[in-house]
Amino acid sequence: MKFIFLISLFLSSLMAVSQDVKPVLVIHGGAGTIERKSMTPDKEAAIRKSLKEAMDKGYEVLEGGGSAMDAVEATLVLLENSPWFNAGKGAVITREGSHELDASIMDGSNLNAGAVSGIKTIKNPIRAARIVLEKSPHVMLYGEGAERFASENGMETVENSYFTTPARKEIWKAINQGKSESGKLEPSKFGTVGCVALDKKGNIASGTSTGGTMNKAYNRIGDSPIIGAGTYADNQTCGVSCTGHGEYFIRIGVAKEVSDQIAFGGKSLEEAVNFTIYEKLSGMEAEGGLIAIDKEGNIAMPFNTPGMYRGFRRADETYIGIYGDD
Amino acid sequence: MKFIFLISLFLSSLMAVSQDVKPVLVIHGGAGTIERKSMTPDKEAAIRKSLKEAMDKGYEVLEGGGSAMDAVEATLVLLENSPWFNAGKGAVITREGSHELDASIMDGSNLNAGAVSGIKTIKNPIRAARIVLEKSPHVMLYGEGAERFASENGMETVENSYFTTPARKEIWKAINQGKSESGKLEPSKFGTVGCVALDKKGNIASGTSTGGTMNKAYNRIGDSPIIGAGTYADNQTCGVSCTGHGEYFIRIGVAKEVSDQIAFGGKSLEEAVNFTIYEKLSGMEAEGGLIAIDKEGNIAMPFNTPGMYRGFRRADETYIGIYGDD
């Protein structure tokens, strides 16, 4: 009898090992008026390459048994370092002509979260957000306080001009010389980056990083660094990262609302995101999208804009999309 | 036939007028280790007087047919001006020895919201939050950017030292001379103020104002200025204002979670707040409370701390409480 019990214990532990959750990673590089007519083949190829490299990097972490938190951070560092997205290098420019970066990260296994806003000299804001999560008693730090905390904890610093790219500067100049209405002619009005990952242990993490909105007011805080608005993760429900017109994402509480519909309304991930993006956000005539993974590994990538840079990886499946139809 | 239709239209419009919603106003002045043994009769009387004056002021606005937004603002201005609460005058002191104030306000009729954080020289942060709601394209502004915007829009400014009271200074000195662990000996560790109102038109508004946590790090943002964490209002569900250990309120997304349980889970206000405060918040070993009004005018004032300064007014009923049992 005891022998049979031990055999069964052994078999069930074997099953537990073989029942590792299949890892999933999904990313976005911003939603907006991304259309084929405003894209060159070279630019499209470069953007697809950047998205793929970042996604592969994070997925490797997951495949190697790494945590969802590590995968999200690794992915977002690459997207921040790429000049093609509105986060880290390539961030948009404030009305005053400088860069103010925001980022947040959340660990769905324990609801720990970290966020920074108004960052001017930390090379990778997502790393600063994670340091706040790990080493600060606080969840959210702003500006100098955030930078001091991050640099004291070993984060790499750069000059504010490091974040500037010629393309962003040209648009900013055009806006401020009255040649273009604020942001309206910019092909990638939003361009925030985000990542959600589900690791082999079934833990979910989400992260978001952004330069905010082009020509934004000095010291404006958008949805990206706000837990519940731009980012949320809870192993019991899902992980979410948003991109779009941040003020509406704050007012709706988009990321938390998706999670709460699953937690309290018994909805599927797809039903939840469809309601929040296509009914609620669209009903307020606001634009944007999100990426999400639920605890079963289901993926959602809804957006109500012409396009959204996006992609996912899971066992034997890789996808990258830019426009509404691909 | 047409005549009967007109009569019935006339009668139903009469009924609509007579069916004005009965206004309700609820306030808090912070949750924490508020116990009889640490209170003198004089202090208790002064605090009860301040709470009552602020509540009466807001309720007068509602009785006169004013909006929930106006009632919330009028109430919170008085609580900010009172030295007894951790908001406006009487705010706690940061590690660096200054005051950094946060506030937010939300209009449940249209989900508009405004928030300011890191305020040093605007006398009434709740007014600054409302100006952001009304006149800025943004929802949330920080520090200098917020102050510049508020003062350009006519908000009264003061020296940072205006917010200091002898009582707060004494505690801060004790902490920083190593005589007390951070905040642990302070009777009202939290002390944020908040107000939720339901007006005759059935509109709900919520607002929260705070000095943050005693000895907090420079540039820390707590839950009070975060829409969805410390404040939320939606005519379809309820209005909520929170007080407590802000980092946990952000991680849970307390105010939005209460609203979402009603919206998506079909719960009553009481069931919703009981879950979030007594199961979720207590489950994380975090402390605090909230006030809320739902669209039917039901009130909730749960807290898992020894006490919470609180009160409400509605037709022929006035209540003020401080401790767990009164």
Largest interchain contact: A-B, 45 and 45 residues
Mean pLDDT of chain A, to the nearest integer, reads 90
* Secondary structure: helix percent of chain A: 25-40%
- The number of E-state strands of chain A comes to 13
Which structural class do the helices and strands of chain A define? alpha+beta
For CATH, the homologous superfamily of chain A is named as (Glycosyl)asparaginase
Q: Cα-atom Rg of chain A, whole angstroms?
A: 20 Å
- Count every helix of chain A, treating DSSP H or I runs of 4 or more residues as helices: 9
Strands of the widest sheet of chain A, in order across it, are 4-3-2-6-5-1-12-13
In quaternary terms, these chains amount to homodimer
CATH-scheme architecture of chain A: 4-Layer Sandwich
Shape of chain A: globular
Report the uncertain regions of chain A: 12-17, 182-188
Q: Say what the CATH topology of chain A is.
A: Glutamine Phosphoribosylpyrophosphate, subunit 1, domain 1
The CATH class of chain A is identified as: Alpha Beta
Order of helices and strands of chain A: HEHHEEHEHHEEEEEHHHEEEE
Strand-residue proportion of chain A: 15-25%
How would a crystallographer describe the biggest sheet of chain A? Answer: 8 strands, mixed
